[in-house]
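#onboarding

Welcome to the new folks! Below is a worked example of what a typical request in this channel looks like: someone posts a single protein sequence, and someone else replies with the predicted structure as tokens. Don't worry about understanding the tokens yet, we'll cover that in week two.

Example request:
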Amino acid sequence: MSHNIVDIIYEQARLRPASPAIISNERIITFRQLIAAVGIAAHHLRRHGVLPNQVVGVSMGQNALHVITMLALAQLGAVSLPLHMAVPADRRALAARRFGAGCVVSGHSSMILSGVPFISFAGLSFDGVSVTPDHDIFEVSPDSPFRIAISSGTSGDPKGMILTHGLMALRIAEADYGVTPSSRTLPMDLNFIVGFRPALSALAKGSALVIPAAKSDVSLLHTLVSHAVSHVYMSPLQAGRLVEPLNSDGIRCSDLVCLRIGGGPLPLETLQKVRDKITPNIFVSYGSTESGLVSYATPEILEQHPSCVGRVCPW
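Example response:
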């Protein structure tokens, strides 16, 4: 029996093919279209020599192609390594060498690294006409590597941790309060586990990802409201920036079921401003790349103990 994490996404596509999987300002990608795109990307990667257990550097932005590529690599049994586009080339090259990347994939030629084979996604068509999608899912065990997660570097130089398919299955089942197939999740940076874990979790539960058109706070707030986002993940700094320009009180995001904040201490002033101006449905989490989610504070807990990070999770 295969334990490939992609099997969960394929199952959702079988259950609800016409439901939205990824929503952006440009288009809506259904689960049927997502799986077709993953198959085309897998075909492209296999044709360029990507093999099972090979480490592949991924330099992509916060977009649908990033999600598609991550799933396609998992489908092939390869191991994805995030090489953030914002990081200087010498640091990306260092990470590629350190973690044994056999190649780098990107939609931008500026992400080419000297001495590392490059696979371009620029100009690749996902219309399914010129290419037959590859839906052959590589069989893996729970201990097979899925991704090398890079830590945020808050405790020193960023470190790499191998996430297996089995571990990711456990991580995507972590506490995402109230996620249903009708939910809409806006994830943080997909290069880090705080971004790609909620993204995979949302897709695994048959719900949609929402990707903003730009990184600005104004664009983020517009996306939350216009796309009826129900679940969003952000850092205390992002939350503070989001509420800072809002002068009048009043809940602006009535569809938000869960605004999850983590990655650092949440100032009490920010907590109160977010309550007053965005939503009262605030959840504070504590964890790490290595351990996953450790503790979780619900709105009810924060009402009584606003400085805490909640109760320790059952696991």
